[in-house]
Fold:
Amino acid sequence: MKSLPRQLAGSLCIGCEHHRRIVSGTGSVFLLCSAGVEHPHLPKYPRQPVASCAVFTPLTAPKTDRESSSAKPTGSGKSDPNDHS
Structure:
């Protein structure tokens, strides 16, 4: 697997159950947030790197590039749900 761009490697999203890595035809890498797909107040593609997130759920097992999470978001109360910067 290709190494992650620096912005993604330092992101909270990489260790979250809700992320799915998307690689475009030109090789650009994006992180899709499944919580953002289900909840309109969250971004589907958060600006990276994400330092805090109210729905962060630690990975329970390593993900593959094509794997997506079926876990439902759970609020941790750690931060503002709109703060994805």
The mean pLDDT is 78. Residues 1-85 form one domain.
